[in-house]
Design brief:
Blueprint: E1 47-53, H1 57-62, H2 67-72, E2 76-80, H3 91-94, E3 101-105, E4 115-119, E5 125-128, H4 133-136, E6 141-145, E7 150-155, H5 166-184, E8 189-194, H6 218-228, E9 232-234, H7 235-239, H8 256-259, E10 266-271, H9 272-278, E11 279-284, E12 296-300
Parallel strand pairs: 1-2, 7-8
Antiparallel strand pairs: 1-12, 2-4, 3-4, 5-6, 6-7, 8-10, 9-10, 11-12
Helix pairs in contact: 5-6
Length: about 300
């Protein structure tokens, strides 16, 4: 996936051309409830986790991103690419009703990367990073321990235009895998976030022309496969192995979102032993706007 390009803010008061993607979410026409049950025991979900790359927290808030909380009501929401130091967090989110337990990790470089985890209930413990200075200075991982599982939210490094940072990405994958394995030895793990890889050809609109593009190189896809071999499961493909045209990212260019020319880059990856007994569904909220990514929600039994 090439680096993102954004349209100019100039002329913001001028109505956009009709060809541009719409940016308002019509929640009234979008049923967000889900009644799925687990395969083992048929238990109905009682806990929701959402992941969303907001592509700039402050811009996302101005695009009514916080309305999503009112309609989805996730128990935990994980955000990536916040691009905002904690000192500059808008009051609207710092004092968001129902989410008093907030954990933020910004990059040392202002306006770059950054992740967050907001929860309605207090986690048992929260840790930051992978204990690797190169990666941790960029604000990429928060781990929250709950009673029966860990939630790890991450924003994985992009391999970059012309793959200039692919080597860095290849250093990242084993670090994250080791972190998840260490947690999984204690209790099940739920990894979520922008993993910056479309794993299978079905996970992007144009696989044939993107073989050497960031996010779809053999190296990145193999790295994801290696993680799944360690008894982890891509929950969306677990429930929907053959479902096509299900994406979570669309470039701002060429009306890609309106045409649904996208990539599935945002995931819930869960410990295999936890899936049948505790995971009910993974829903991609492709009709929710506010970013060049859409949110994705996991339904589970806590």
């Amino acid at each position: 996936m090439p680096p993102k390009k954004r349209s100019s803010d100039a002329g913001a008061d001028t109505p956009p051309p009709a060809k541009l993607n719409r940016t308002d979410t019509d929640y009234s026409s979008m049923p967000l409830a889900n009644g799925s049950q687990t395969k083992t025991g048929g238990k109905k979900w009682n806990f929701k986790i959402t992941t969303w790359n907001v592509d700039g927290l402050r811009a996302w808030i101005k695009k009514n991103g916080l309305d999503f909380f009112t309609h989805e009501k996730p128990d935990v929401i994980c955000l990536q690419e916040t691009k905002c130091s904690e000192a500059k967090l808008p009051d609207e989110i710092k004092h968001l009703k129902g989410y008093s337990h907030q954990y933020w990790l910004a990059a040392q470089k202002e306006g770059y990367s950054g992740v967050a985890l907001l929860s309605q209930t207090k986690p048992v413990a929260v840790t930051y990073g992978l204990q690797n200075k190169e990666m941790d200075d960029e604000g990429r991982v928060i781990t929250a321990e709950f009673d029966s599982f860990f939630v790890v939210t991450t924003y994985v490094p992009n391999a970059g235009r012309k793959l200039v940072t692919l080597d860095k990405r290849m250093r990242w994958d084993p670090l994250l895998k080791a972190h998840l394995q260490a947690l999984d030895a204690q209790k099940p793990v739920i990894l979520c976030g922008d993993l910056n890889v479309a794993h299978l050809e079905i996970d992007l609109a144009n696989p044939k022309t993107n073989k050497k593009s960031a996010g779809f190189t053999k190296e990145e896809r193999d790295g994801f496969s290696d993680l799944l071999k360690e008894d982890f499961v891509d929950t969306f493909r677990h429930f929907y192995p053959d479902k096509e045209k299900c994406y979570t990212f669309w470039t701002y260019m060429m009306g890609a979102r309106a045409k649904n020319v996208g990539w599935r880059l945002d995931y819930f990856v869960v410990s295999k032993r936890f899936v049948d007994s505790n995971i009910c569904d993974n829903a991609i909220r492709s009709e929710v706007f506010g970013s060049d990514h859409c949110p994705s929600t996991l339904f589970l039994v806590k």
